[in-house]
Prior knowledge:
The chain is α+β, with helices and mostly antiparallel strands. It has two domains: 6-45 and 192-333, endopeptidase domain like (from Nostoc punctiforme) (endopeptidase fold (from Nostoc punctiforme)); 52-185, Lysozyme (Orthogonal Bundle), CATH 1.10.530. The protein contains twelve helices and eight strands. Strands 3-8-4-5-6-7 form a six-stranded antiparallel beta sheet. It has a two-stranded antiparallel ribbon with strand order 1-2. Helix 3 packs across helix 4. It starts with 5 loop residues before the first helix and ends in an 8-residue tail after the last strand. 49% of the residues are buried.
Amino acid sequence: MINIPGRRERALRASLALTAGVGATAAVVVCALIQAAGDDPVSAALSLTVPSQYKHLVQDAGTHCQEVTPNLLAALLTQESGFNPKARSQVGAEGIAQFMPSTWEKHGIDGNGDGKRDVWDPEDAIPSAAGYLCDIAKDVKDVPGDHQSNMLAAYNAGSGAVRKYGGVPPYKETQTYVHSIQALAKQPSGGKTATTTQAARVIRAASEEIGTLYSWGGGSASGPSKGICCSPNGHSGEPITGFDCSGLTLYAYAKAGIYLPRTAAQQYAASEPVKPGEVRPGDLVFYGTSASSIHHVGIYIGGGWMIDAPRPGTKVRIDHMDVMTDLFAVARPVPQSHKEI
């Protein structure tokens, strides 16, 4: 994963900047891309990104049982924390695998043999996650349906819910969770990235939502959805229908047949950074000070501009990439189909 501090950040900005005004530039680029009919690959092949320091842990732990593979485990960690070992959720889940304290107490193991079980240590948490998945797989093995889907659903919603509903429960969050992990796990190790036709579809879908309200937590592969008026660090408000930044990118890419995980950090972890000078319309633009602190994402449309859902109180719109000072990277996802459960 590549940071773009100082000189490199300036080089990236310079390579994207044009002198035309926002209205003319955005209109020309969006129209040109929507009309694009070509199908040439945008770049070389990509695959699911796993930080190098965790690859051996994922490979070793991803052989515990038939239902758990290294790819699946990597996808789960991407979805849970974006490979951030210090991640902590609003409901109290901890570490790279996002264990709740009660679950860790029961299923956490001393993976590195140092004499302690530490949820914040990936050498303990990653093999613990694999072992817990295998335990869950046994617990729901008699439930009808796809065994792997049931296992993932149980990891998210509990084995009781999977048994109650005879498979993946009808919870939108759980269904999206299962979709996202399985889609990421099936990413090819080689093959074409998004074509110019797909990039045009992404930008078309996003441009059609310009003017839609910002809604924190809003947006899915199906379109705008209910969230709240403000961010978790701001004033809580009434539920409203719309998009947050990553909800918009998830939706736009789904319209092109490419399924992304839910949050901006997870989307970066599932993409490959693009070098300055190789950025193309349709790429994702990320903001933050590190891979684990990414807080915003937009869709690059050319000329230094992007379509994004900026923040509470705004609407989906066209912004210049300099709208925020902490530009981190531009990255490109690998195409992955999305199917309803």
